[in-house]
Design brief:
Layout (H helix, E strand, L loop, with lengths): L1 H21 L6 H7 L4 H7 L3 H25 L4 H18 L1 H10 L5 H27 L8 H20 L9 H20 L3
Length: 199
């Protein structure tokens, strides 16, 4: 069982490299099997299709970034700065794995159920982290909030809407470096306006 788990992790690691470099559409299961010197039947034993492998890769990445974020946020003492730090780290993640996210963005609401569930869990985790930051701000007297969970949801929805609005006029879902910088600047401005309203 342990050997199977190791092999599964090796496959996920090899697929991550391919997907991150070439994207999902330009990667084949043959290439991933070849990278690991595996037979195709053995690869399909672990993952019946490319979508299930992609879901496993996304799940692995989200759990990794989740753990990193939790550790880093625990060191933040000021809640306002913690939210801005969170936005920096979030964009760092998006930029690093944008080729993977391209499939998710272009597919939209038609994502397979297993991927929808992974992103639902990721959103819940984001809400919990922002909620924890807001609660810490309440405890230290930075914020006055009645419902930290609802407040976290509203902030995340506002940020998501702003990001989508940024791309809507051009329908360009492939931001360059300057666009990433513009988005992050606007995210921080919006978060600051929002957080000032919680004082």
């Amino acid at each position: 069982m342990e050997n199977q788990d190791k092999k599964r992790e090796l496959i996920i690691g090899a697929a991550l490299k391919r997907f991150a470099h070439f994207g999902l559409g330009k990667t084949t299961m043959n290439e991933i099997a070849s990278d690991l010197s595996l037979s195709k039947p053995l690869l399909y034993y672990y993952f019946p299709d490319k979508t299930s492998l992609f879901a496993a890769v996304m799940d692995s990445i989200i759990k990794e970034i989740d753990k990193e974020m939790e550790t880093a946020l625990a060191k933040q003492t000021n809640s306002h700065k913690a939210i801005l730090f969170y936005l920096d780290k979030r964009q760092e993640f998006v930029r690093k794995y944008f080729n993977l996210l391209e499939y998710v963005i272009s597919t939209g609401p038609e994502l397979p159920q297993n991927l929808l569930e992974i992103f639902r869990q990721a959103r819940n985790s984001e809400i919990q982290k922002i909620q924890a930051i807001i609660k810490k701000g309440i405890d230290t007297g930075e914020f006055s909030v009645n419902d930290p969970t609802l407040t976290a949801e509203i902030l995340l929805d506002a940020l998501a809407g702003m990001r989508m609005n940024h791309f809507a006029p051009s329908r360009n879902f492939y931001p360059d470096k300057s666009q990433f910088e513009q988005i992050l600047k606007k995210e921080k401005q919006l978060a600051t306006i929002f957080l000032n309203g919680l004082k």
